TrEMBL record:
Any single Gene Ontology cellular-component annotation: plasma membrane
Originating species: Methanoculleus taiwanensis
Keyword Nucleotide-binding: yes
Taxonomy of the source species: Archaea, Methanobacteriati, Methanobacteriota, Stenosarchaea group, Methanomicrobia
This protein's UniProt keywords: ATP-binding, Nucleotide-binding
GO molecular function terms attached to this record: ATP binding; ATP hydrolysis activity; transmembrane transporter activity
Protein known as: ABC transporter
Length: 232
């Protein structure tokens, strides 16, 4: 399974996105600050924006899904239960997973942003597409919900998962790291080799690196384990 972006170029006002990238099975992080082009790239990879130059190549990807940064953009129905059914999913199961049991008849747009994000992510993970593109999956979530979202990402047993995020506190284990810099997507390679090259790495990772610690992956748990290693 593969999705490859060949010499993509797209202009948006004064901003120009350029990307060469290849994502195979596993979890990939596309990191970068606000306004650096992550959502634009996610839209292109989902086939929802057409680049002015370059092309997309897919191999073995039968289904794909983009979870948008703003969950209200997904809403098409007047109740939470109808919304879940519009995804072809069972409301009771999804509402339980999203910790929204009993909210079947609520208007989705009256849920809090975080509640609606939980609902959207529960639907996206339940669909289990070959290619899952997650644009800022942790935004609006509290810490406990971020941790559960990380677990759901790590529990995907197959397929390609690409996370586009500026999150710098709660992250899942990933296979590769890329980052947006000056409108260009730069690959830092596979983890753990990519970690010291990651310019916008979270402070806890940077701290570990200054101590000479080399975590196996990017989560706080990995850093803690690496620190325990050097301290015996
Ligand atoms: N439709 C558009 N028209 C004009 N400019 C746009 C459009 N879409 C995006 N941009 C600009 O392109 C740049 C990249 O935006 P994008 O939303 O891709 O960044 P991002 O990294 O996803 O940001 P965030 O972290 O806030 O989600 C920004 O400067 C934005 O203003």
């Amino acid at each position: 399974m593969l999705i490859r972006a060949d010499d993509l170029e797209l202009r948006r006002g004064s901003f120009t996105l350029r990307a060469n990238a290849s994502f195979t099975e596993g979890v990939h992080l596309v990191s970068g600050p606000v306004g650096s082009g992550k959502s634009t790239l996610a839209l292109i990879l989902a086939g929802l924006e057409k680049p002015e130059r370059g092309g997309l190549h897919r191999e073995g990807v039968a289904s794909s899904l983009l979870s948008l940064q703003f969950p209200e953009y997904h809403v098409t129905c007047g109740t939470v239960a109808a919304e879940v059914r519009s995804w072809g999913l069972d409301p009771a199961e999804i509402l339980s997973r999203a910790r929204l049991s009993g909210r079947d008849d609520d208007d989705p747009l009256r849920l809090s942003r975080g509640e609606l994000k939980r609902l959207n992510l529960a639907c996206a993970f339940a669909k289990n597409p070959d290619l899952l593109l997650l644009d800022e999956p942790f935004s609006s979530l509290d810490c406990a919900a971020k941790v559960r979202a990380c677990r759901a990402i790590e529990e995907r047993r197959s397929g390609i998962t690409v996370i586009f995020s500026h999150e710098r506190s709660v992250l899942p284990r990933v296979r590769t790291i890329s980052e947006m810099a000056g409108g260009r997507l730069v690959s830092r390679g596979e983890v753990p080799g990519a970690i010291p090259l990651w310019q916008s790495a979270p402070p806890y990772l940077r701290y570990a690196l200054t101590l000479g610690v080399r975590p196996a992956n990017i989560t706080l748990t990995d850093v803690r384990e690496a620190l325990c290693g050097i301290r015996g």
